[in-house]
Amino acid sequence: MGRAWNTRFEEAEPVRPFRWTKGEKSFAGWYYAVTVGDHVGYESWLERDRLILLDRDPEVVGIGSQPFWLHWHDGQRSRRHAPDYFVRLGDGRGRVIDVRAGDRMDERTAQAFAATRLACDAVGWEFQHVGTPEPVLMANVRWLARYRRDRSGRPPDVAARLLEVFSEPLPLWAGAERVGDRLQVLPVLFHLLWSGRLVTDLESGLLGTESLVSAGRGTR
C-alpha cells in the first residue's frame, strides 16, 4: 500500500469483469461519465446511481471502478476485497467508495469495509461507505443525466438567454417559454441544471413545470 499511494487508480482497468446473468437480482453495465469522457462499469443499479451522483459532483475529476484488490489476513484466513470505486478529487485527494444498502450489510461485508478503511487511512485516502440515495433527489438527477453531454447545451445562444432569463427565480416552464420553442429550449435548460449553471430544489419534490429555477455558479 505504501508503494501504491500515488498510483492513478482512477485510470486503472477494472480488476474483474462486469457480467450480468439471467435471473440475477443485480444488473451490471457501463455508464458514460462526462467527468472522464469514457464508460465506467457498475455491478448493480445502486452502484449505477452512485456513479451518476459522482459524475455530477463538482469535486470529482476522475472515477475508476473495481480499481484494485485489497488482500489481508483476518487472523484465521486470507481475505480480499475489490472496492467499488476509486475517485480522484480536484485537489488531488483520493477517495475509495464502497456501495451497499443498509439492509444488505452483513458481518463479512462490514469486516471487509473496516479493513478497507484501515488501508485507506494508512495511505492518506478517504474511505466512504454509501447506501441508497434519497429517492426524490435520485429521480431528479437521473432525469438530468439524460442531458449531461455537452451537445445538450447547444446552441450557446439559447444557453446564454436562459441564464439571462433565470437571473431572477422563475418557474421552469414560464422561463423556458420566454426563451423560445420549448422543444429546443428544454434540453439546454436541463443541461444547465445538470451542470449547476442553473439551480433548483432537487430534494423536496420531483422536477416539474412549476419548479423555481435560478442562475447558479456552475459545477461542470
UniProtKB/TrEMBL annotation:
It comes from the Bacteria. InterPro entries: TnsA-like (IPR048000). This is TnsA-like heteromeric transposase endonuclease subunit.
